[in-house]
Amino acid sequence: MKVVFFGSPTTALPALNSLLTAGHEVRLVVTQPDRPAGRGRQLTPPPVKVFAQNHGLHVIQPEKIRRDEKALEMIREADPDVNIVVAYGQILPASIIYLPRYKSLNIHFSLLPKYRGAAPVQWAILNGEKFTGVTIFQLNEKMDEGPILAQEMVEILPRENAHELETRLSHIGAALLVRTLENIDRLELKEQNHELATYAPRLTKEQGLLDWQEPAEIIDRKVRAFYEWPGAFTYVDGRRLEIISGQTTQGVMPSARPGEVVQIDKSGIYVCCGQKTFYLVERVKPEGKKEMSAFSFSLGGKIKVGTLLG
Question: N or C end of the chain: smaller count of CB under 10 Å?
Answer without folding.
Answer: C
